[in-house]
What does this fold into?
Amino acid sequence: MRCPDRRLAAAWLLALAAPLASAADPEAVRAELLARERDRHPAASPQDLAAGSAAFDPARAEEASRNRPAPGAAEAVEAGKRLWTRKFANGRSLAGCFPNGGRGIAAAYPQYDPRVKRLVSLETAINQCLKTHGQPLMDADDPATMGAVLAYVRSLAEGRKVAVRATTAAARDRFEEGQRLYFTRMGQRNLACATCHVNHSGRIYGNAAIPSPIGAAVQWPHFRDGRPASLQVRIRECLGRMGAAPFPAGSEEITHLEFFLAYLSNGLAVRANAWRPPP
Amino acid sequence: MRRAFPLLAASAALAAAGAWGQAASGLALFIDPARGNCIACHQVPEGAGPAVRANVGPRLDAARLAGWDRARLRALLDDPMRANPDTVMPPFGRHRILDPAEIERLIDYLHALP
It folds into this structure.
């Protein structure tokens, strides 16, 4: 059962050593993981890796290509647009809460907000707007409301390069916390996200290739059975499969993990609303 | 798991569900996603279980298991991290994913592989 790749030890050392360092260096972590993935999969560019399982599986890639655009995506984007532009009683709207009506903003989330000293996910930003205007909040897991809005707002960033920033010490701390969670074994099956996605990316687990950590934040929301699922939804599903009680929707832990993954996708073009097979 | 032999899968599912009060067989534990789920990572020889593409762990057959006596397999299944801190294999015994009797039946199954 020895791991075929001894360099994984380096990744674990990296993970263990990083919290001890006085200041996390997200760029160094990203470069290290990019280099590992380049060594493991020399034929795949980082943007290729963003295709998830399909990056390693020609049959899955063919299926994904047949399902482009993903069934259900156009309807969800349309429904999301209606929710985004709907006028509240005070005449404002979700679109009015964001610069340029929300065009392109999705590529920069999650982001650290120094005013509230927290990471803010796109979902949180949307709900903050609703709260400000006295509107009922959306359930982060609900495909019909938050899922549709995400599908629309992410479509407004189609082709933009992911640009998540961790330039301040506080934001770097959040990245480091996301990294720590990503490399921490948890749950009954005693797996860390990294145990599979870093050490075994591209290998077949069940009937699907294990996606790379690089590009994981590019294609969401994913459409499965015609319904959108956000990156946070997907992370929580994975935690469930690991035999861990998933961190609650919208929790700091989930947002830290999303921030870490989004940072690893920096520079890659958003390709929202991609097809995935049914869960 | 869609490529599983339908009969094999059905009988395994029944066994895993404890139908007729029977204990889950080693094969049932090997392929049940909620129990061993070994098949998600390991292939086995044709006829010994479902045909899968999984390759996270090594293909398991008599040759691969040469030298793996019961004690060694028992220790591995209890907690594979003792032998390899980086392993992806779950600690079936230590985390009580399988009970001791189930681990013995899994070992029976592994030792019967051609």
Remarks:
- Residues 10-70+164-275 of chain A form a domain with the Cytochrome Bc1 Complex; Chain D, domain 2 fold (CATH 1.10.760.10).
